[in-house]
Amino acid sequence: MESKYLNFIKQDVPTKTSLYKVENKSGEYLGIIRFWPAWRKYIFIPRSGDLIFDSSCLSDIITELNNLTAEWRASLKKEK
Fold this sequence. Notes:
Blueprint (H helix, E strand, L loop, with lengths): L5 E6 L7 E6 L4 E8 L4 E6 L8 H25 L1
Antiparallel strand pairs: 1-2, 2-3, 3-4
């Protein structure tokens, strides 16, 4: 997904599901997006509690979470 304010950078890790680093356009690390098996969806884990987000940034994070979860669910259907 292309975001006006954020970069979602897929990480090369040996796991079943993907891990994404979230940065602002200045390159500041904000947190990670990863799959949470208990909820069977992708979640955002912020770097720390001192971060602030406006509605545009939060909307972009939510859109990315929903897209990744939808892709994961579609991949399950293809395996069957």
